[in-house]
Amino acid sequence: IRFEQMKKRTNRHVFGHRLSLARLATSGKLFNMAVRRAKMREHREHSADLFLDEWGLDTRIRIGSLLVSMLLESARIPERRDGEAEHMVPAFHHKLEFLNGRRHGLVYPSSTLRELFKSDSSSHAVTARHLPMLVPPRPWMTYNSGGYLTRDEPCMRINDGSEQLRLLKHASNEDRLSTVLAGLDALGMTRWAINRPVFEAIRKVWNAGREIAEIPASTYNEPEPVKPADYDENPKARIKHHLETREWMNGRANQHSQRCDCNYKIEIAQAFMNHPMYFPHNMDFRGRAYPIPPHFNHLGNDMCRGLLT
Q: Which residues lie closer than 8 Å to 276 by C-beta, 6 or more apart?
């Protein structure tokens, strides 16, 4: 009883002023385990406690319209016509059309962008939802409430295991995850930035198209296997040529995949230049913590680690 009274006196200055969960996290007070357990208990009992203020429909429409307008103004792609020099053109167009008697504003990709989509495989498209964050992540209050601000996912990586999820939820309800969740918060609130000198060196090598360290060359320089003269008459020569051609095609595809992956990392680094970066973390079934953004983080290859400071 005396211990509970001490906790109430200790935490009175926190909950008496109704500090938000975000302010508790950024101020470091959430790493007081008594405060954390009390806040986790409050979160379980009152799940309607939102981390972010909820926007109304009118606010969402206004912000969405502004973002679409900014996209239409800033998105440009290079276009080259017959007999003309290359110049930048809008990537999207806005049109007003009548559908079912009502006027609707529609956004269409330009013809140049459509041809670009057709010429490249969509298998290399990467979801932009798991990127680094510009603000500290949402603190982990329960097994599935933490990390990204508007996306709920479990604090543990689960591979089609309903039993694992059930046990994880039970442990969260029994208040057995407070310490490990505090560790995930400490990792997630570590601030990172892009190392500009390293980025400039990598961009110089990338633009030159040379292969240095883990940066692949812009072209695949291995010569394509030549068809042997006795291809039609010699079955062994034919089989050997097929194997060599398949190996060459796999090497070219791997080089292209590595080039796309490296380009995506460089684009992320350029987008976050001069901005803080935060990596929300979760863990595997062994308790090992990993950053949630998979393509660019401080546990990536040497290029990623060199770009971060």
A: 134, 191, 192, 193
Q: Tokens representing 261?
A: 């992956």
Return the pLDDT at 128.
Answer: 62
Report which of 81, 7, 25 is spatially closest to residue 280, judged by C-alpha positions. 25
pLDDT digits (tens, 9 = 90+) for 277-289: 999 999 998 889 9
What is the total residue count of the chain? 309
SS3 254: helix
Distance of alpha carbon 280 from alpha carbon 282, whole angstroms = 7
pLDDT digits (tens, 9 = 90+) for 12-34: 443 433 457 777 777 777 878 88
Q: What is the sign, positive or negative, of the torsion defined by CA atoms of 84, 88, 92, 94?
A: negative
CA–CA dist 108, 117 (Å, integer): 13
Task: Provide the whole-model pTM.
Answer: 0.72
Angle, in degrees to the nearest 10, between helices 33-45 and 178-188: 100
* Helix ranges, 97-218 (H): 111-119, 162-173, 178-188, 196-208
Q: What is the DSSP letter of 300?
A: S
What is the Cα–Cα distance from 185 to 146, expressed in whole angstroms? Answer: 9
